[in-house]
Amino acid sequence: MVIKVFLASSSGSTAIKKKQQDVVGFLEALKVDYTQLDIACNEENRMWMRQNVPEDRKPTNGIPLPPQIFNEASYCGDYDTFFDAKEDNSVYAFLGLPPPPGSKEAEKADKADIVENGTHAEETNTEVPVEERNGNTHREEEKLQQAADEEEEAQDGEEEEITEGETADKETAGDETPMEEEEAVEEADEAHAEEEEGQEEEEAEVQEDEEEDLEETQEEEAE
Q: Do 5 and 67 meet the contact criterion of CB atoms below 8 Å apart?
């Protein structure tokens, strides 16, 4: 795309000369490729310019004055619209050219896209909640806390099992002790009964012996 600047090299108007110099100087400062087309020395250029300026952009007398700016055959504007674009940092948009990266106009275009599309605006302006930023940390803390709770519950379960086991052993031991005591008492009773039976038998034998002796004594006395 070629930027065409129509100007009059031999214009007698100081104002027109100044405007032409402003446009050309600013384009050179921006390092924009452009072509100067003189309408003062070339009737064809004059006629082409007058025919391609839109009717609604022509002055009341119908004769547009230089400088007039085109991008190929597309009309960009005159000095007044160029000046407004320069003040608004939108010269590249005015010329129909993409702004170079890092330029003020590129940054402005990016902001305009952000506002228009909304997607980037949400990403740029919407603050991410703390919960989402720290979501992984909170999840890890919850997992660690859950693992600690499970471990504590397992330890409590083991302690309860140990306590129940000790209680069961004590109960078993307590059950065995009375049984042993009962057996010992029974054995002692049996031994005592056997002793009493032995004593009774001895007493009966002694009594029989005494009776026999008494009978023998009586018989002897009778004789």
A: yes
Distance CA 38, CA 20 (A): 11
Q: Which stretch of DSSP H or E encloses residue 78? A: strand 74-78
10 vs 122: CA distance, rounded Å: 55
pTM above threshold 0.90: no
Encoded tokens for 116: 């228009």
Rounded CA separation 163/167 (Å) = 6
pLDDT in tens, 50-109: 999 999 999 999 999 999 999 999 999 999 999 999 999 999 999 999 999 888 888 887
pLDDT tens-place string over residues 144-167: 778 777 777 777 666 666 666 666
Domain regions of the chain by residue span: 3-114
For the 3-114 domain, the top CATH level (class) is alpha beta
**Among residues 25, 28, 99, 19, which one has the least CA distance to residue 66?**
19
